[in-house]
Amino acid sequence: MTAVLSKITNQMINSCKRYLSCDGTKTVWEQSEEIVKKKISSCIQLNGEYQSCFQRVKEET
Length: 61
Description:
The chain is mainly alpha-helical. Helix content is 77%, strand content 0%. It contains 2 helices and no strands. The termini are close together. It comes from Larinioides sclopetarius. InterPro entries: Dynein_heavy_tail. This is Dynein heavy chain tail domain-containing protein. Residues 1-60 form the Dynein heavy chain tail domain.
């Protein structure tokens, strides 16, 4: 189970990196501040949900 969760964690991190960089086409400095803030907020929210699910699965196993 640990290997699966590790793969999911890595995929989530990579997805957030691609999201923040517009699939590698722009840096955060090339985007408007408002858009970057929204994207970062979405990634933080995703992380919070993932942490909740991770803990729930960890407790069940």
